[in-house]
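Long-time lurker. I teach an intro course on protein structure, and each term I like to show students one example going from raw sequence to a predicted 3D structure in token notation. This year I'd like something fresh instead of my usual example. Would anyone be willing to generate the tokens for the chain below so I can use it in lecture? Attribution to the forum is fine with me.
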Amino acid sequence: MAVVAVEYGIIQRLKDDASITALVGSGTNARISEEFPTQTAALPYITVRRVTTDYRHHVTGTTSLMRGDIQIDVFAETSVKAHALADLIRARLNTFSDTVTIGSDTVVFHHCYIESDNTGFLTPRGGDDARVKRLSHDWVVWVGV
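-- Reply from a regular --
Happy to contribute to a lecture. Here you go:
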């Protein structure tokens, strides 16, 4: 059993929620990824990205804790749809602590909380592109290493 990157644990946690996958698809068709969506990707779409990693130490050496700063972005056709999906993500992750299993690998979450958020639109690139609503949430995640 190996420990996997925290962002994959979050992606799996979101894929395990039926209310989220009802909106973004399930299984291999789930639109939840660590990759930024393509311009033609179906919406809504969720991206999960690890921004920084901080390994904790004390005077006798290292600890078994890692603090990760994670950015979760929601892309949708409208503000209402983006906020509805973001609310589901917040309900699924805020104060979460448990083990997430991905195949034979695990991520042990000690604590997860939202730190900040912001909103915006993706600028259309061409005449037939729609304006896409984007919500970005910054999360602090404590996991075992």
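Some talking points for your students: The chain has one domain: 6-144. The chain has a mean pLDDT of 88.
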